[in-house]
Design a protein that fits this description.
alpha/beta, eight-stranded mixed β-sheet, two-stranded antiparallel sheet
Length: 527
């Protein structure tokens, strides 16, 4: 069980504060698809089991001895954190396992509760819930640094095997908690976004361990050139805003391609970014406003950051533009004023523009800091090696709201800065880096045939094009692999609250629970 004395916790926070928090490039967000964090106060939830036993608070953490390397058990184990409750459990009920994926899991204990789909399934099927922290995130670290050498055991396959080994070996802190391994009890694996992909990958590559699975907004198809991230945004955002963004980006690309330094400097000055020396850093900075779309949910109001951005471009003297927008001249100046009036300070604070948004100083020590707790570094290792997911502009034949000056090479260069020498052999190796094709081949991507696996997606999710709901996916699902679609955003269906905001999200949740109830009734022990 993991508990830290207050003095030690304070000391660790002070140590973290003493380290450089940000250096060049870190204001630009990585292509990261986190599971939404749900705010609950654990102190307001007195918890008891169905027989009246008082249970530990939801945020009480436990530890499991996980293998450092599943291909070489002789290397030993590390402490992997997890959270657990058997609030709704009755003998014979399922064990519902969830990992939030690429983040410190200590803020995700709410996924034990019936404020989430996990907890609703547990409540209706008399199950217990578990939240497991992903290796190399939070306090679940095989080694005491995030060095290239340590990351040799930071792979998708190791993460999959963590889920399998945990299910097969954990002794849960509940009555008969050592008698609920797969075969003795039905296990249900639930995940969202990257962890939704892990759900699919695990059930595809290790059939029989988990009786059923639920994958929300699961980014199952690794894609290096991921211009499709911006496509659901372009399709669903206000038409006037989309039209004006397309016009501005076309102008930006034209000016940057001209190599006319006078025009280029004037363009950057429009946004207050004249100190940004590399044109692709400038083009990438303009993506920042679009990333606010990922923060939206069905219950987001008109004051959400993305809508404030669009209003800054489309509302003039109290009047909103028509569907075609105000046109290039107004939109360019309005977008620039938005940056200069508030947005730059919001993301960069008092830092100069090159420190905040520049990515070309390979000598900056930020790139190679390898102390624990850097979730971006741990996630970027997976991007650089296996997924890619580089955000860039659409092909020339397709409308775009993101600059075409940004290509995968922009992200790949930063991988080289972050992990010097790790990819030295990539030009001669038969294995691609990132090895997206290898991931898709090993775990079947869009084309998985795993059964009793539900895929749930939102039409407005910017990550949709990496899910089975992508425009390019030919998989339509079946009764043993239902594909459910709502008007939600990223992982909306995991939150019961979002089901209250959207009848279509609620329908997905109800349908999923019905499938789980049917499959649970079919389970028979095998051990």
């Amino acid at each position: 069980m993991l508990f830290f004395p207050i003095a030690l916790a304070v000391a660790l926070l002070q140590l973290a504060a003493a380290r450089p928090f940000r250096a060049k490039g870190l204001a630009v967000r990585l292509p990261k698809p986190p599971v939404p964090h749900l705010e609950l106060d654990s102190q307001n939830f007195p918890i008891s089991s169905r027989n009246g036993t008082q249970l530990p608070p939801y945020d009480y953490s436990y530890s499991f001895q996980q293998l450092i390397d599943h291909s070489n058990p002789s290397l030993g184990t590390f402490r992997q954190r997890y959270w657990h409750t058997y609030e709704f459990y009755e003998s014979g009920g399922p064990i519902i396992l969830f990992t939030p994926g690429e983040t410190d899991a200590s803020a995700y204990w709410s996924y034990l509760t019936n404020s989430t789909l996990n907890g609703r399934v547990a409540q209706e099927l008399n199950g217990a819930t578990v939240v497991l922290e992903h290796r190399f995130f939070g306090d679940s670290n095989p080694y005491q640094n995030l060095s290239i050498e340590s990351f040799r055991v930071h792979t998708v396959e190791q993460a999959i095997q963590d889920l399998v080994y945990f299910a097969q070996n954990v002794h849960l802190p509940m009555p008969s908690g050592d008698q609920v391994a797969p075969g003795k009890a039905p296990w249900i694996l639930i995940g969202g976004s990257y962890s939704g992909a892990l759900t699919s990958y695990t059930m595809s590559s290790n059939p029989g361990v988990f009786h059923a699975g639920y994958a929300s907004s699961a980014v199952v198809q690794a894609i290096v050139d991921f211009w499709g991230y911006f496509e659901p945004i372009r399709q669903a955002m206000p038409a006037n805003c989309s039209a004006d963004l397309e016009a501005v980006i076309a102008h930006v690309d034209s000016v940057l391609a001209s190599n006319d330094s006078t025009q280029i400097n004037a363009l950057k000055s429009t946004f207050g970014l004249e100190g940004l020396s590399h044109n692709d850093d400038f083009a990438a900075a303009l993506q920042e406003n679009l990333l606010a779309w990922q923060d939206l949910q069905p219950d987001s109001g008109p004051g959400a950051d993305f809508f404030q951005f669009c209003d800054a471009l489309e509302v003039k003297n109290g009047v909103s533009a028509g569907a075609s927008g105000w046109g290039l001249d107004h939109a360019l100046q309005a977008w620039g004023n938005f940056w200069k009036s508030s947005y730059y300070r919001q993301i960069c604070g008092s830092d100069d523009v090159e420190t905040c948004l520049g990515t070309y100083d390979a000598s900056n020590p930020f790139w190679t800091y390898d102390y624990l707790g850097q979730t971006d570094r741990s996630w970027q290792w997976l991007l650089c090696n296996e997924f890619g997911f580089y955000f860039d502009g659409a092909p020339a034949t397709h409308p775009t709201i993101a600059s075409r000056l940004i290509a995968p090479a922009y992200g790949e260069r930063q991988c080289g800065y972050r992990f010097p020498g790790a990819f030295a052999a990539e030009t001669t190796s038969v294995i691609e880096v990132p090895n997206a094709r290898g991931v898709n081949s090993a775990y079947q991507g869009w084309n998985t045939t795993a059964e009793r696996l539900i895929f749930a997606n939102g039409i407005n999710d910017p990550w949709r094009e990496a899910t089975v709901a992508a425009d390019g996916s030919t998989s339509t699902g079946s009764d043993l692999q239902p594909h459910l679609l709502s008007d939600g955003f990223h992982c909306s269906d995991l939150s019961i609250g979002e089901g209250k905001a959207s009848t279509k999200v609620k329908s997905v949740q109800d349908t999923a629970v019905a499938y789980m109830r049917e499959w649970f009734a079919e389970w028979v022990p095998s051990a």
